Amino acid sequence: MHDISLITTIAFGFAAALFFGLVAKKIGLSPIVGYLLAGIAAGPHTPGFVGNIQLAGQLAEIGVILLMFGVGLHFHLKDLLAVRNIAIPGALGQSTLATLAMVGVATLAGWSWTQGVVLGIAVSVASTVVLLRVLMDSRTLETASGHVAIGWLIVEDIITVLVLVVLPALAVNTSLDNVALDAAHGGTEAGKGVLWAAGIAILKLVALGAIVIVVGSRFVPWVLMRVARVRSRELFTLAVLVMSIAIATAAYAAFGASMALGAFMAGMLVGQSKFSHQAGSELLPLRDAFAVLFFVSVGMLFDFRSVMQTPLLLAGVLVVILMVKPLAAFLIVLLCRHTVHTGLVVAGGLAQIGEFSFILAEVARANGLIPTEAYSLLVAGAIISISLNPIVFNRLLALEPWIEKHASWVRWLGRRADEHGSAINAVTPHGDGAPADAIVVGHGPVGRAVTEVLGLFKVKPLIIEMNVDTVSELHNRGMRALYGDATRPEILKEACLEKARCLVITTPEPATRLAMIVAAREVNPGIHILTRARYVSEHAALREAGASVICCDELAGAAGLAEALLIDQGVPREQIEREIGRIRADWGQTVLSAVGDGSATK
């Protein structure tokens, strides 16, 4: 009789993941929660079917490789550089504080210092999937605050990659506990051993990186080009899969690095080539499938009884994830002289753990640095934190008005940010005191386009922007720019809004736009306010707040697609303009009838 344990493990794993994933999604949770629950159901610590843990672990290793390959594929240095002044110190500071807190919790619970450090690093890393979902649901992904959160997460990922290099070396030579014990007795041998091991590991990483970059940057595009010319999607997918697994295996076999690190480097190589988008689209279904098995295999190691035997440690893990991490992130954002809103977005978005936590824990467990029980703690922490994350995120954002009004220490930090902005505005004045014909809030893609169009007609607007670096850059280019939050009346008064003809709001966040309109009407009740709206559903609130003209992204997209289609069909220009005008008029009337009167819609 054939051994079908592999097939039954895969079949039950996928089936259970599908069921629990659907249930989780139905009740508003991340599917990751469902995948972990599926693993618990298939594990040896629950009644019923028991999957083959060894086989599941090997399949999960492929999932780790593909996950890390995807991270490397979508890693863009420019995204990090755009928010480097806050993301780099922020992520480093938060990770350090979370790790120290976890060391304290582990020590109180009777665990070793080494185990506390590894657990601390694991819980300091948030899930990319969960963060992106909560930012998209709250429509903050494309805002300045969302960009900071994404950059912060990129730095956390880089920290984890570096830790993956050092962990095997620590396990082979000595442990952090030996270092502490040796230091207590005045010795240095263990410390030298760790430093030597870490140094060797870093040298191996440099050698691996040099070989991968020098050889791979030429070899990988060459191979993909040859395969692409065959015009076979199957062969192209196979080529990408072979490269990801081959480089990961070579990194492990030749340099002793983790396969996860090798896969990350392989992803970076492909990501820098012109085949990155095609590689991502072809490998995505396969990556998602094996990623599901990865989370299922993690859940299979969950032991409820062992978790209940260490309630203090479980409570400590949850406190670090749900309280220490968000509070540390919030304070660091304020200390970096950013707004309370940005601090709350970053704090709420990072109050969870996910895939990177398990990848790091698996490497540590395989090297004997943490026991299997630590996996159960991380699974419990992930299920609870991911389930609560949307609630935590929304509750934190709702606290913004109360925090700014009642928390004196926050107001003090806010004044530091204001003083910093005032210093910038004083060093490089935003104008000669004369009011601007137009004030543009925000200098993102939409704001830049508006400013460029105004410049073509010799109109020099005043730009209000919350990014200090952007304001300095605009000043260097001789443009009028003011650092400040346009939701605050005093900033609008400094911009001479009471004497301006119009205000153009380009920020993508709905709640921020509403607050800006209300503040502008307070300063200048007769100001002409033009604002963007991503969805038609936002029009009523914007109209009620006092917007004069609302330009809808949905309408612009519909009109643009219709115009392109008619041009492609050879329709005369006059007829195209007539039809586009009709679309705008019909859509505008639909919005106005839903809103109640004749406010303009574009």
From TrEMBL:
One of its GO terms (molecular function) is antiporter activity. This is Sodium:proton exchanger. One of its GO terms (biological process) is potassium ion transport. The chain crosses the membrane at residues 6-25, 32-50, 56-75, 87-111, 117-136, 148-173, 193-215, 236-269, 289-305, 312-335, 341-363, 375-393. The keyword Transmembrane helix applies. It comes from Termitidicoccus mucosus. Its main location: membrane. Pfam families: Na_H_Exchanger, TrkA_N. It is found in: Membrane. Keywords: Membrane, Transmembrane, Transmembrane helix, Transport. Residues 435-555 form the RCK N-terminal domain. PANTHER family: CATION_PROTON ANTIPORTER YBAL-RELATED, SODIUM/HYDROGEN EXCHANGER FAMILY/TRKA DOMAIN PROTEIN. GO terms for cellular component: membrane. Gene3D superfamilies: 1.20.1530.20, NAD(P)-binding Rossmann-like Domain. Belongs to the monovalent cation:proton antiporter 2 (CPA2) transporter (TC 2.A.37) family. The keyword Transport applies. It is a multi-pass membrane protein.
